[in-house]
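User: Could you walk me through two proteins back to back? I'd like the raw sequence and the C-alpha cells for each, with a short line separating them so I can tell where one ends and the next begins.

Assistant: Of course. Protein one, sequence then structure:
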Amino acid sequence: TLPFEYEVVGCNGSIDLCDRNYDDLAYATTHNAMSSAADGWLGPNQEWDVPTQLDAGVRALMLDTYRAGDLNGLGNPEVPGVDPDTGYLCHAVCALGSQALAEGLGEIANFLDANPGAVVTLIIETYLSTELTNVAFEESGLVEHAYVHPAGTPWPTLGQLVDADTRLIVMQDRAVDPAYPYLLNVWAQAFETDFSNSAPTDFSCAPNRGSTANDLFIVNHFLTQVFGSPELAAQVNVNPFLINRMNECRAFHDTQPNFVAVDFVDIGDTLAAVDALNQES
C-alpha cells in the first residue's frame, strides 16, 4: 500500500484523454446553456440547469451576456432596479429569464473546484463590454482558471491544461482586448455550421461564420421554430442520426467536430456520440 492517499481524476473523466490535444477532441455543448426549464426560463433551450449539465458530462456551454442597463425592444432596461453596469445572462430579452453573470460564472467555478480533472469551454455571444465581462469573471474567481492561448501556437493537451490549472477556455464574439487576453475571439479560433435550421433536412456541413483554417469546429445541431423544444430535440439528438451527421461533417472538413451543440442535452444520445467521436478520432 502507498503511504499516502491519492485520487486519479483523469481529464474530462478519462485518463486516455489526458495526452490528447484540446483541438483533437469533441465536447458535448449546450446551446443557450443558461436558458433552462429548471431555472424557470420562458422558452428554454435546456431542461437541466448549468450545474446539472456539467455534472452529466457537458464540457462546453454557449452563453449570452447582456448589460442590465441597456434598453430592450420596448425601451425599458433589460434588468430594472439593479446597477446598470451589471452583467447578466439572458437570451434575446432578459424578461424571458435572467441570472447575474457573476452568479452564473460562480456555478462554473464551483464545478471546476470540485472536479480538478475537468476542462470546460465557454462560447459567449456578448452584448456586454469586455471590461464588464472581466468584472464578472474576477468576481466569480474564474480568471485564475482561464487559459491564454498564444496566437499561432498549437493547443495544449488536456493533461497540460489540468496540470497548469488553466482548465477554462473562454471565447466570445468580440475583438481581443490585450488587457484581458484570456477572453479569446471565437471567430479567430473556430468556425461553425449554420445555426438557423427548422427541420432535420435543413442541416448542412457548409461553413457559416469563421474561417475553415481555424483550429476549432462548432457543429450547430439544434432546430428552432421560434423557440427550441424537446420535441424538436428528440428528432435530432438521437443516434444514428446524430453520430452520422458528425461523421459526415468530419469527413467534409477533414477535422474533428469539437463542439457538438444541442438543445435539451438530456434528450437522446449526445454524450454517447461525443464519447464515440473521441474514441474514433
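----
Protein two, same layout:
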Amino acid sequence: MRLTRGVVACLVLFLAGTTLLFGQEQTASIQGAAIDASGAALPGVTVDAVSNKGQRFSVATDRSGHYIFPAIPSGVYTVTGTLSGMQNAVVKGVNVTLGSSPRVDLKLGMAAVTASVTVTAEAPLVDITSSAAATSIRSETIEKLPHGRDFASVVVQAASANQNNKTGGISIDGASGAENRYIMDGVDTTNPQTGVQGKVLVTDFVEEVQVKSAGYAAEYGGATGGVINVVTKTGTNGFKGSVSTSYNKNSWNGQNAYLSGQDTIRGPILQLNLAGNGFEQFTPRRDNTKTLEPGFTLGGPIMQDRLWFYAGYEPWIQSTKRTITFVPSQGGVTNTYDQSFRRNNYIGSLSGNVSSKLLYRAAYNNSGYTTGNLLPGVTGRANPKVSLYAPDDRFENWTASGYADYVASPEWFFSGRGGRFYRNYSQSGISNAPRIIFTQGS
C-alpha cells in the first residue's frame, strides 16, 4: 500500500511538472482526419509526416478517422495518408512553426489502379489553435536575411520588435528590454539581475526564432513585454556542415572613428581638466584591435530515421593593443597595454524518435568568455603601473536541456522537460596592494 501511494505521488508530481514546463514550446503538432469521397471517416489509415530535413513520423487514424502528431520538430512537412485499396492522399508544404498545430485533412478516393491525389497546403489566415500573436523565423529565412553574429539581430525582423538601447535592448510593442522573457531550448535565459537578454547564441546555431508579442500562455507570466523563444539546430538524415572564418581589423573601419577593445565607437572626449577650472578636449589614440572568428558545424544521422546529432564550434578571438600617454601629473609616460579576449561558442545536440511513439532531444550550448588583462581608460589620468591592469576575467555562460514526449495512444500523451541555465563571473590575479580613491565634493 505504501509503495502504491508513493508511485501515485511521484506520478502526480511528474504530471504537474510537465504541465508547468510544456508551455515553453520546443516542438509543434499536426492533426486532422482521414475521410473517403463521401465524407465518411476512415479508421486505420497510415499517416506519415516527413519534414523537409528528412525526419519521418507515422501514426494511424483512430475509429473516428482522426489522427494527431502531438510533438514534432518545427519545419515544412509533407503529410501522406495510405490505406489498402484506396488512393494515397498527399498534402505538401505544411508549414509547422513552434507551438502551432495546423489541421491537415486527408481525402482518399477509391482506386482501381495505384494512384495518389496531391494537394499543396495553404497557410490559414488565422491560427485557431492559439491566441498568441507570434512571428516565427526559421533558419532557411535567416540565411537569406542580413544579420549579426548573435541571434538577437534576427529578433528585430519581427514586426513588433526593434532595437532600442535606451530601453535596455530589444523593445517589443513599446515595452522595455527588461520586460521580455528569453527562452532557449525550453530554458529561461533571462538575466536574473537586469531582466534583459542573459545568453549569447551564434546565429549559425539557430533553427528557429519565435517572437510572441501578445496573448501568450500563463507559463510566461514573468513577461509584460514579449517572449523570445529560440530553438537550436538538430541533425537530419543527410550529412550537412559548414566551415567558415572571419577576420577584421578596426583600422579597416574608417579613419575618423575611435574603437575601443570592445568595438565601441567614440569621438573626441570632453572632460574637466585637472585644475578644475575648465574643460579640455582631446582625441585618444586608436586601439589596434584584431578579431578572428573561425568555425565549423556538422550534423547528420547516427541511425537513419531514428537518431541524429548536431555540433558546432565558432569562437570569437580578439586581441587589443592600447597606447596611452599619461598626463604630466601621472609622469607623462607612454605605455602600451595588451588585452586578449576569447568567447568560446560551441553547441552539441542529440535527437531521435522510437517508432514515432517517443520523441526526445538533449542539447547543450556555451558562450562563456575569458579576458586576459584589463585596459586603462583612454583619458591618460589613470595610474600607469602595469600591475594594476593584470587581472583576468572569466565568465561562464551555458544552458543544458532535454525533453522526452511519449505518445501512448491518441488519447494519452506524456511529456517531460528539464534544463539548467548557468552564469558565473569571476576575476583572478587581482593585486593585494591598497587602493585609495579621492573624490572632490562641492
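The radius of gyration is 28 Å.

Let me know if you want the two compared in more detail.
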